[in-house]
Amino acid sequence: MKKLLSSMGSLLVLAMSIPWTAQAAATSESTMGAGLSAATVQTVETTKQPYAATPEAIAEMAAKKIKADVNNIVLFADDRVLQGVSNREDYYFEIGKSRKLLPGSYIELIYGHSQTLIASRSTLTILLDDVPLGSVFLNEKNREGAKWRMDISSFPFDPGFHKLSIVTHMEVTNDLCTDQDNTANWMRISSDSIIHLNTTSSYASPDLSYYPSPFLEKGSTKPLNAAFVLPDTASNADLTALTRLSQYFASTVAAINLDMDVYRESDVSNKLLGEQPLIWIGAAQEWTQSGAQVLAQLRKEQPNGAEANRIALVASPANSDITNLFIMADESAMANAVTMLTDETLIGQLYGKSVSIPETITSLDQSANAETSSKTQQVTFADMGYGNLTVESLMVGAARISYPIPSEWELKSGVKLNLKYKHSKALNFAQSMIAVKVNGIPVASKFLSAESSEAGVLNLELSKDLFTSQRSIDIDVGFQFSANVSEAACSASSSHIGNWAVIDSSSSLSYVYKKRNTTELQNLPSPLATKGDWSESAILVPKDASASELSALATFMGMIGRNETSGLGLQVLALDGSAWEQAAADKQLLVVGSADKLPQKLLACPEGAVTIKDGQLTPTAAQVELLGSIRERAAWLQLCQSPLNEDRAMVMVAATDEGAIGLVNAAMVAPATNAKIAGRLAVIDERKEVHPFLVSQQAADQSSSASELLTTANKTVADRLLMIGGIAIVMIAAAVLFWWIRRRRGSL
Hints:
Helix content is 22%, strand content 31%. Strands 1, 2, 3, 5, 6, 9, 11 and 12 form an 8-stranded mixed sheet that branches. A 7-stranded mixed sheet has the order 30-29-31-35-34-36-37. The longest helix is centred in the last third of the chain and has 31 residues, at 717-747. It is globular. Mean pLDDT is 84; it is low at 1-40, 364-374 and 699-715.
């Protein structure tokens, strides 16, 4: 659990604000966002460039003809408005350990501001990792459509996350108290503002110490470079390995929805071999075509390192500049190989071109087994990925902490917040305070004091009603500072160097939860996994699953399983013969495939809202109506009862035909359509539009015929006895009534 929370926290909510990251087509000729009145940039700021590219770096790039990987990272999804006297916006971005910056990397800020600002007192400052890059006055020259580009090519970046800070000070009058709430005191940053990074590999030759690079690049707007390849006769162990690796890759860049590509060996052409890094999953004897070529290349490069049960890097036989990852393991060793490639502690021990797979290995991630019997959860800010959060400001500053509630849990009551903080002693405590909002609702405020300057504590009982409309807890902690004893709280003559507070990372949330009794698609991976444990589930795919079906499996499992990556008990079974029925009889089921390859027993989907009839998607619930075009060709996600066990659930990810299964990838990856996948049924049409149906579990039952209601096929023993007893009582009562009527007539 700790690993899960840390992964979520570090990638989704690393600091005081939650940025939006995406690829942008912004260039040096970026135009203003729709919210700004200027159609083109009017002013270009010219300031010193302390971290411009060196002449040596420029010459090296030209001499070696180094091709840069370009990433344009958008700072804000929409134009961002800053108001008040003092503001600070922090944006976090990552540079992976396998990447280094090239000349031509820069920060480009496009902005405008109120014409009422006092130019001699209003400023904009840009900092990178708290190092100032430059400052400008906010004056008439940059009032509308200004562009400020700062070269960061030679900035000393270490691998990991970095912070870009936009700091403003704005005054309209001589009264800071008035200026703080003055609606004319504003600045607007365009959504076209970007961080433009030219990067290349930081290593001369591929090495496992840089894994998951070059297959997945952290910090990139398009991080996934590789595709997976399975043998045409892939074993269940190979399929399970694919699923676990897709979960790990998705968890590594959790803020981006990854569209996974998976191929069968027979689908791999020489063109694909020469264009894209590939990850080969399977035993040496399983490869007969292109995989055999890669294996031969491995034996050529590493004569002593190509034995069975080994993980190795190898150049593509079609292009020596392309690196492949070969996971060569038999069924007994494949699980250990994947553990080595998904456990962060073990990944840190990888190096060189290849490594053997030990016979026994134990994953060091024990989160799946932690507190499995407990119903109380406590998580600190440090567990979420936060350090101590520092708030500094002229008057008002704030920090945000966000925590996603696990989808399989339901809060039984409210949440307890234990907030620990300290602050400057050089404040006027009568005019300084702390205020807390949860999910946008004010919940507490308190004056600062001499006691809280050493160790302040706020213990709050947060009502369950605050979390009914969303599955996250967003805590905004704000501080109002005043350093004046005798003057007004925001006098311009006061000193502000002592205006600071620190939120302690040992602050915590605690709550009592229960496992959800009802499950909907938006709550996945529940009921398939609980706290990282997949042992109660089985994933079923067609024996001859195509590349598109395997891609749907990898993408779907990456999306729902990126926060449940321990892989404990996870198993994928091919629908081969009847053996799968016995293995999956008491399991929660996930079924992925096209309708023509799935058994009718699974397609029937008991208590479901749709099924396949005469090759078309056919509603079985009164609340579902589908037009002919959708019935003929669509994909769908559905929750229903397992046909193997009435006490278990089944999640079906299917399509009317093999060509339509790719619609699942498109819907899962796009944020707008992904957000629509809810309820117990979501249908995806050919336009990749999602149609959710909020069908209750009882809806399908209501459409059953009277004869179906009388059958005992899907009833428990107790229900069967009750039904038989009820029928017997009715028959006896009818017989007694008939006898009584006959007797009465006879007496008359």
